[in-house]
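Build the 3D complex.
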Amino acid sequence: MALLMHDPLHKNIKARVWSTKFPFDREAQHFTAGIQGRLDLAFEKRVKDAALKQRDNYYIVFAEADQLPGLFILRLKDRVLIQFYTQFWNRYKSIIQTTLQEVFPEIKDENIWFQLRGETRELQKLPTNSTEPERRDEFHLQEFGLQYLIRLGSSYDHGIYTDMSSIRHILAPQIKTNASVLNLYSYTGAFSLWALKLGAKDVTSVDLSPKYIEWLQHNLGLNPELNSTQHDALVMSVDEALDKFISEGKKFDFIICDPPSSSSDGEKRTSAIKAYRDLIAKMDQVLNPQGRLVLFLNTHQVTNQKFEKTIQDNLKELRLNYKLGTRLSLGQDCPTLKNFPEGSYLKGLLLEKI
Ligand SMILES: C[S@@+](CC[C@H](N)C(=O)[O-])C[C@H]1O[C@@H](n2cnc3c(N)ncnc32)[C@H](O)[C@@H]1O
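Done.
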């Protein structure tokens, strides 16, 4: 038995669990106080977490794992982006905002942004209040000493994947000074800039989107301590780029591969997990001996075990010899729950070429 938050408008998730504690009528009566209590608890955890002082971007609420189903709150320097994955939260906007500003009084009204996120295209919208003229929707923030451009009002994705921040930090010791790094599906280049800062000899970023590569170049320009002549950006598909490197005999020491969970060439949809076999075969040809591969998968629909097994099976089939290193997952400000696989959507494997 559970007390549920009903969302008749959601395509798949019609309800989310609010409580399993009896008596439910009492829980329902004190619902607003419940929201405040849970928000306070989530904020308090982040305020106490020393690791989060190293970046301007972190989650202060991470949905189910903070007992606030379908609600994500992201701190982006002096701004806050409140994301609803269920329209249920719409009617509680003001209570969320007031509770937030009680704990973080420095956050001004005009720096609070609301965004409805969802699985269907029609739910993938810009923040609702992003067109108000007094809002400064472009600004810079820092993550581990690097500056990034954030645009809240012009794109569904605002310029940095904060759920990857703790992983970038964990990977730091793996990216060796003087390494040659390849960042596939680079987006705005967070891993590329990070690799340059860590002392990589050269970094190559590949993304299909000219807009994101331009954004990456802009990010590079924001960080004058990085040597942009050590960076190369290619606007092309990963498949094409790998073929190009193979034909040129180009080799790398460290490859990051973070594909979208599924992609379409206009005709058919391919899931990242299925695409990995061919990708690994090609990445192997451009990876130096003792080189490292970091493979990510961004979907809750494939479990950690299934992902690992698929990759091991691919390696066996291709007769490739790799040692499995660290398993990567959400962490720090993005907690996960043991019995809630939907929340553990991000997974990664570090492989070393033998
Ligand atoms: C999940 S994001 C990568 C996030 C990035 N790793 C980060 O941490 O900032 C996926 C990116 O892949 C790009 N993309 C999608 N299909 C592609 C393809 N076939 N070849 C190259 N890039 C592609 C998209 O434009 C998008 O920027």
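The domain at 161-353 is CATH 3.40.50.150 (Rossmann fold).
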